[in-house]
Design goal:
mainly beta, seven-stranded antiparallel beta sheet
Length: about 160
């Protein structure tokens, strides 16, 4: 058995938890908040669905699609399989109101890309809401991800990467 399979067995996925997130842009103190469902393995959430995104309390027009950035561009720059983590440096996701994996158009998005993409930054944009912010090198102090328990309380797990 490979080391990867052993590691995955040691940390089984917890299916379909609901997560709440907050990202604060440092320059203007604007916030992006929201929620989604997904499967937690270690400190990484995969199989993300049911995404809601709010720019300073105003909801992003939907429906919301998810993707991850692929710096090689082959076969596409945006692929299925968004990754969200309690550790901001492991994030590789975009939440957009168009399916980027199929070249779809959009007018609102929020993304955080990790260091492996060569575009280590957080950016939000919404034409209908006239919102735009961007920050290079997102820090743990700007990012919060919390999992809810069965009763909807943010009590299951609340972590920030400490560096």
């Amino acid at each position: 058995m490979s080391a990867k399979r052993l590691q995955d067995r040691a940390r089984p996925a917890q299916p379909s938890l609901t997560f709440d997130f907050t990202y604060t842009f440092p320059d203007r103190n604007r916030m992006v908040t929201g929620s989604f469902t997904g499967d937690l393995t270690g400190d990484v959430v995969n199989n993300i669905a049911n995404v809601r995104v709010f720019f300073d309390g105003v909801e992003m027009p939907g429906p919301i699609y998810t993707a991850k950035y692929n710096s090689s561009g082959v076969p596409n720059y945006w692929l299925n399989g968004a990754v969200v983590s309690f550790d901001v440096t492991k994030n590789n996701f975009i939440f957009a109101n168009g399916d980027l994996t199929k070249g779809g158009g959009f007018n609102s998005y929020f993304f955080i890309l990790d260091g492996s993409t060569s575009h280590k930054k957080a950016t939000t944009y919404s034409a209908p809401l006239a919102k735009h912010d961007s920050a290079l090198n997102p820090t743990p102090a700007q990012w919060t991800l919390a999992a809810r328990d069965a009763f909807g309380v943010q009590a299951v797990r609340r972590l920030r990467a400490r560096k």
